[in-house]
Specification:
Largest sheet: 9 strands, mixed
Bound molecules: (3R)-3-hydroxy-3-methyl-5-(phosphonooxy)pentanoic acid
Structural class: alpha+beta
Strand content: 25-35%
Number of strands: 13
Distance between the termini: 9 Å
Length: about 325
């Protein structure tokens, strides 16, 4: 048996703006997806039932890419600590963990993280109509804090270039890791889920429509990019008061492009009373919010009082990890 886990992610800065080429910053969170892969008889299975390519396009893509279409059947068992479809990167974590497990099953002694990130990104793209930024899959694979930009950035360690042919043409991203300073150990993220399902594709389309009708909003997208770059610097400097301030600003900007909702605004407002800053995270319209805090218990309790389901996590978690006994 092969067992591999990978963490979910939370976007700290740059969601939506990253779609328009602006930088974005995400951290791995301490909630993981674990994939167990065992040989089986008959056909490929997921959770004991036959692998349905419609239901599990990522797994189907990866097994074909890594082991080939005629390979011996295997069975995936997936255990997830993440809220599904809530903007916490559960499908990217599944792709990264499954990719690494399949590479091991192919007989490779080690799986190269750049290769895992590459294949996991392609798996996401193939499941999302050819469009996916590499931020989720890179954060799940590398762990820690990841900074994606359209250029090489001096304030973070460059890891690799990811490129993808999308329906709109060739896209390229420079993927960096931001070294987390020791001061990061004194702050926590409280992730609160509204429980409202809000498909990312619909929110991205809504923003595209808004920008078409109100081109002056492009200035806000640019500002989100500046906030993301300043946020990456503040994280690497260990200036978490500044990180919190920038998160507050990011929430105002995201609200201004119509991707917040009352539930997110309420949870953000209540979390701010005991935290350094708070914002929605991911596509918005529902999904999750995020607070950066030195008082995780108080902030989590306040968000729960507003009806949120909560995950408390340090900033950053280990990336893709082999869990074999
Ligand atoms: O909902 P999530 O966490 O998958 O975030 C989507 C982030 C967007 O910027 C809105 C879309 C994208 O492809 O980057």
């Amino acid at each position: 048996m092969v067992a591999v886990s990978a963490p979910g992610k939370a976007i700290l800065f740059g969601e939506h703006a990253v779609v328009y080429g602006e930088p974005a910053v995400a951290v791995a969170i301490d909630a993981r997806v674990t994939v167990n892969l065992t040989p089986c008889t008959g056909e490929w299975k997921v959770g004991g039932t036959p692998l349905d390519p419609e239901k599990h396009p990522h797994l189907d893509f990866l097994r074909r890419q890594i082991l080939g279409s005629d390979s011996e059947p295997r069975s995936f068992q997936v255990v997830s600590e993440l809220f599904p479809a809530a903007g916490l990167g559960s499908s990217a974590a599944l792709s990264a963990a499954a990719c690494s497990a399949l590479i091991q099953a192919s007989g490779a002694t080690e799986s190269d993280v750049v290769e895992v990130a590459r294949l996991a990104h392609f798996a996401e793209a193939s499941a999302q109509g050819g469009r996916a930024s590499p931020i989720d899959t890179s954060t799940s694979t590398l762990g820690g804090c990841v900074f994606v930009s359209d250029q090489r950035e001096s304030l973070a360690s460059w890891q690799y270039t990811r490129s993808l042919t999308t329906p709109e043409g060739e896209r390229e991203w420079e993927v960096h890791s931001v070294d987390l300073p020791s001061k990061a150990e004194s702050v926590w993220l409280v992730v609160g889920s509204t429980g409202i399902h809000s498909p990312t594709g619909e929110m991205v389309a809504k923003v595209a429509e808004l920008l078409k009708r109100n081109p002056e909003k492009e200035a806000d997208i640019k500002r989100m990019g500046e906030v993301a770059r300043a946020g990456a610097k503040a994280i690497s400097d260990g200036d978490f008061e500044e990180v919190g301030r920038l998160m507050d600003e990011a929430h105002v900007l995201l609200s201004g492009i119509g991707v917040s909702c009352q539930e997110l605004d309420d949870m953000v407002e209540v979390a701010r009373q005991t935290s350094l800053g708070a914002k929605l995270t991911g596509a918005g319209g529902g999904g999750c919010m995020l607070a950066l805090t030195r008082n995780p218990e108080e902030t989590a309790a306040a968000v729960e009082m507003r009806g949120g389901r909560v995950i408390v996590t340090p900033l950053g978690a280990t990336g893709v990890r082999v869990e074999n006994p």
